[in-house]
């Protein structure tokens, strides 16, 4: 089973939401240019932690294949972007500032 869908959890500082959103846009463009992400649109949701402790940004995208994440780690532009993302986020309620769980294609329920 391919696990190419990534549901990114970002816990930005309250003053960093707009900067993070701009960086996610840049990040997406870089992934596409490098041939790492599919043509499937990336969906970005902005909300708040359920306990009210701060903003929460969820981004969902698809890697082109299972090896893309490894190639991303070696790309000269992506590592610095990930470092900037990390600097905009914070650990909150025992959860890391950034989480990137991978999933298989979703089951559609009607």
List the topology elements.
Blueprint: E1 5-10, H1 17-33, E2 43-48, E3 55-62, H2 68-74, H3 78-88, E4 98-99, E5 102-103
Antiparallel strand pairs: 1-3, 1-4, 1-5, 2-3
Helix pairs in contact: 1-3
What does this structure look like?
- It is a single chain.
- Strand 2 (about 45-50) and strand 3 (about 55-60) form a beta hairpin.
- With about 110 residues, the protein is α+β, with helices and mostly antiparallel strands.
- The mean pLDDT is about 95.
- The chain is about 30% helix and about 20% strand.
- It has one domain (about 5-105): Alpha-Beta Plaits (2-Layer Sandwich).
- Strands 1, 2, 3, 4 and 5 form a 5-stranded antiparallel β-sheet that branches.
Specify Rg, calculated over alpha carbons. 14 Å
Instruction: Determine the fraction of residues in helical runs and give it as a percent range.
Output: 25-40%
Which topology does CATH recognise? Alpha-Beta Plaits
Task: Give the total of beta strands.
Answer: 5
End-to-end Cα distance, whole Å, is 23 Å
Largest sheet: 5 strands, antiparallel
The number of domains is 1
CATH class label: Alpha Beta
How much of the sequence is in beta strands? 15-25%
Instruction: Indicate the overall shape.
Output: globular
> What's the rounded overall pLDDT mean?
93
From the helix content, strand content and strand pairing, which structural class follows?
A: alpha+beta
**What pattern of helices and strands is seen along the backbone?**
EHEEHHEE
User: So how many helices?
Assistant: 3
**Low-confidence blocks of residues:** none
Query: What oligomeric state is this?
Result: single chain
CATH architecture: 2-Layer Sandwich
């Amino acid at each position: 089973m391919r696990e190419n869908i990534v549901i990114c959890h970002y816990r930005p500082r309250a003053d960093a939401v707009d900067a993070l959103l701009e960086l996610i846009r840049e990040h997406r463009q870089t992934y596409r240019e490098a041939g790492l992400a599919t043509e499937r649109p990336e969906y970005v949701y902005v909300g708040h932690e359920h306990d009210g402790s701060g903003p929460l940004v969820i981004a969902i995208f698809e890697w082109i294949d299972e090896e893309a994440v490894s190639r991303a780690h070696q790309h000269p532009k992506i590592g610095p972007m990930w470092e900037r993302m990390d600097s905009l986020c914070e650990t909150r309620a025992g959860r890391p500032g950034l989480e990137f769980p991978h999933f298989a294609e979703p089951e559609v329920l009607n």
